[in-house]
Amino acid sequence: MRTAKIGLVSISDRASQGIYEDKGLPGLRAWLESAITSPWVGVERLIPDEQDRITQTLINLVDHEGCDLVFTTGGTGPAARDVTPEATRAVADRELPGFGEQMRQISLHYVPTAILSRQVGVTRGKAMIINLPGQPKSIAETLGGVRSADGKILVHGIFAAIPYGLELMGGPSILTNDAVCAAFRPKK
């Protein structure tokens, strides 16, 4: 089994300047460590909310570092400095609109302002690039989905679709801890 290479990009002006501690990368890394049971390696970047810098980082991670999957955190709101979706679309071969739709659906279970989110999912070559929210709690909810008090899945998280999607694109197989997020694969 080939080791998956996953880019983790936190986009924050203040965190990248050291004004406050970045919480996006540690939150994302912790969730992935709990969810993925197959071999994977992360390539992390902490960068400011600058469209050219985001675009360059995404291109570098996919084209030069060889990442199969890239997650960004932050920069997806309606504020003038939130340019992550624009930078992501600029490097895309194709858009995967279901990711943005599902992330907003999940977040609406928690906050009414989820409709202000502009997250997107795209492909570049054989890689997926997906914009996530910036807060660790929101990252976990978006990836893992909405669960009832007894742990039953009410709304699937987006990560359930990612392993099969990567396989369809010629990427590595990613196995998951079903208690955190059961990856969906059609029965053969």
Topology:
Layout: E1 4-11, H1 13-16, H2 24-35, E2 40-47, H3 51-64, E3 69-73, H4 84-90, E4 94-95, H5 97-108, E5 121-124, E6 127-132, H6 136-144, E7 145-147, E8 153-156, H7 162-168
Parallel strand pairs: 1-2, 1-3, 3-6
Antiparallel strand pairs: 4-5, 5-6, 7-8
Specify the CATH homologous superfamily. Answer: MoaB/Mog-like domain
Total DSSP helices? 7
Q: In the CATH scheme, what's the topology name?
A: Molybdenum Cofactor Biosythetic Enzyme, Chain A
Mean of the pLDDT scores? 95
* Overall tally of structural domains: 1
Which architecture does the CATH hierarchy give at level 2? 3-Layer(aba) Sandwich
Proportion of beta-strand residues: 15-25%
Output the helix-strand order.
Answer: EHHEHEHEHEEHEEH
- Stretches where pLDDT is under 50 for at least 5 consecutive residues are none
The helix/strand class is alpha/beta
Characterise this structure.
By secondary structure, the protein is α/β, with parallel strands linked by helices. It has a single domain (4-168), classed as MoaB/Mog-like domain (Molybdenum Cofactor Biosythetic Enzyme, Chain A). 35% of the residues lie in helices and 21% in strands. It contains seven helices and eight strands. α2 packs parallel to α6 (136-144) and α5 crosses α6 (136-144). The mean pLDDT is 95.
